[in-house]
Amino acid sequence: MSGRLITESPGQDLAGRRRASRNTLRAQFALVIFLLAFLPNLVLTLTAQSTLPAGALMGWMLLVGVLCGMVGYVLSGALLRPLSRLQTEVEGGELRAHTDDPAEILRLRRAFSDLLARLGTEQTRRNAFMATLVHDLKTPLVAAGHLTHALVHLPLPEAERREVGAQMGAETARLLALVQQMADAHRFEREDVTVQSAPTDLRALIDGVARRLQPQAEWGGLELTVDGSGHAPADAPVLERAVTNLTENALRYARSRVELRVTPSGLVVADDGPGLGGSLAQLAQPFTSQPTTIAGQQYTAGTAGLGLFIARRIAEAHGGGLHYSHQPHELSSQDPASPPPASTLPTVFTLTLPEVTP
Q1: Rounded to an integer, what distance in angstroms lies between the CA atom of residue 159 and that of residue 286?
Q2: What is the DSSP pairing of strand 231-234 with strand 198-201?
Q3: Is NAD included in the keywords of this UniProt record (predicted)?
């Protein structure tokens, strides 16, 4: 079956432009003003005892109609001048304040200004994120390329060949993890996270996360500990992904120690790092992964923003939330009557869950 290109004839295009010109706010305003001015004159003329000939009377009504139409056209243009000015400024992308604007136009101008500001911020964030993504993808790809070249072209002993193969596997896993986070962020940004809850051993869940990330902790010279116990209805694989994201972020910024803990309110990931460079509401977004300065130290771009966003969405899907605090805890200064802190470490992320039982 062949396709056909449907085009409009010049007559159809002209008719469409005429319909559009009639269906404008100025045309409607002009018609209303014309009717308000012309109909009373028509009623008075018809009801008056006039001795004028019919032709003169029709000429007079025609003149009144033309004058009413002109008045309607001029007044409608004056009424809509602020709106036309706003349209021109929006098309130019630059809004300016005008003291003679009506209150409705001022509110509309503020709404457009806020919208343009949000669009500009979103575009800046996405541009920065794309630059970060290219960097994060390029690094393991270049490393894998060098390793492949060494594996193919260099006469390596068997032990070194196995080590190169292991490094290639690590770089591939890093790429897959980044791609998975991108896919998760894209899905979680556009649709609700669905979970299938079942009784879950929270201590076993964080034990599994700690075992998988222990090599990363040892490579960075960090201590990774696990504490607490409890059960809660949860989707274990999905919840484990959130805890893994939080733990990887903690291992990236911690100075010496990272702690995973089960508490009566949920799961806690704490570290002794400098904390976030902004509020959780700012950073737990899918397109904020960019270089930042935290506690006076420059940190490279990574996938921290993606990880926090995914963890927050997963927590919300379980009926809880993601909370952040950065406050040094001194055990000696704690009031004995107050509840113990979630962690003695300064940077604490709490993934709250309902119905946590011992």
Answers
A1: 41
A2: antiparallel
A3: no
Q: Which residues on adjacent β-strands are paired with residue 223?
A: 257
Burial of 321 per CB tally in 10 Å (0-12, 13-18, 19+)? middle
Would the pTM count as exceeding 0.85? no
Q: How many CB atoms lie within 10 A of CB 4?
A: 6
With contact defined as beta carbons under 8 Å apart, do 251 and 212 qualify? no
Task: Dig out the tokens for 327 from the structure.
Answer: 């406050």
162 with 280, same domain? no
The model's pLDDT over 203-229, given as tens digits with 9 standing for 90+, comes to 999 999 999 899 889 988 999 999 999
State the CATH number of the domain containing residue 257.
3.30.565.10
Radius of gyration of the chain (CA): 34
Residue that has been written with the tokens 């300065």 in this structure = 293
Distance between CA atoms of residues 189 and 187, nearest Å: 5
The domain boundary residue, chosen from 72, 94, 116: 94
What single string gives the DSSP state of each residue in 5-18? -----HHHHHHHHH
Token pair belonging to 87: 């349209």
DSSP letter assigned to residue 332: G
Digit-coded pLDDT (tens) for 262-311: 999 999 999 998 887 766 776 666 655 445 544 444 444 444 467 788 88
Give the total residue count for the chain: 358
Q: Considering its fold, how many domains does the chain have in total?
A: 3
Angle subtended at Cα 347 by Cα 343 and Cα 351, rounded to the nearest 5 degrees: 70
CA–CA separation, 315 vs 266, rounded Å?
10
In angstroms, the CA 250 to CA 240 distance is 15
Say whether both 217 and 88 belong to one domain.
Answer: no
The neighbour count for residue 194, using CB atoms within 10 Å, is 8
Give backbone dihedrals phi and psi of 200, rounded to 5 degrees, phi first.
-130, 135
Per the structure, the complete domain to which residue 242 belongs is given by: 198-352
> CB-side exposure of 248: number of CA atoms within 13 Å?
20
Q: How far apart are CA 64 and CA 62, in angstroms?
A: 5
- Cα 350 to Cα 322: distance, rounded to the nearest angstrom: 6
